[in-house]
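Entry 14: structure prediction run for chorismate mutase. Input pasted below.
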Amino acid sequence: MTNQPPLDPVLAAFRKSIDNIDAALVHILAERFRITQSVGEYKAKATLPPADPARESEQIARLRHLAEESQLDPEFSEKFLRFIIDEVIRHHEQARDG
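Run finished. Output tokens:
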């Protein structure tokens, strides 16, 4: 057993808030992917393409603007959204391919 100093209560409070936010993010992402899974199934049945580049561009522009308003780095927000979009497209391709 190692002797660790007691955790600073201010740091502990910050970490608890971060943990709560992380949990909320996971739940939000899970819900988003449940919805996009339904979208992928619909697109497959309707023979629509898995990707919609025009919609993706609109969403990226919209979220970059929201990031700027929220004082979040718009480059980071775009990278994050692009990661999500790429994963959704992969799921839609899987739905299309059966």
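Notes: The domain at 9-97 is CATH 1.20.59.10 (Chorismate Mutase Domain, subunit A). Will compare against the previous run tomorrow.
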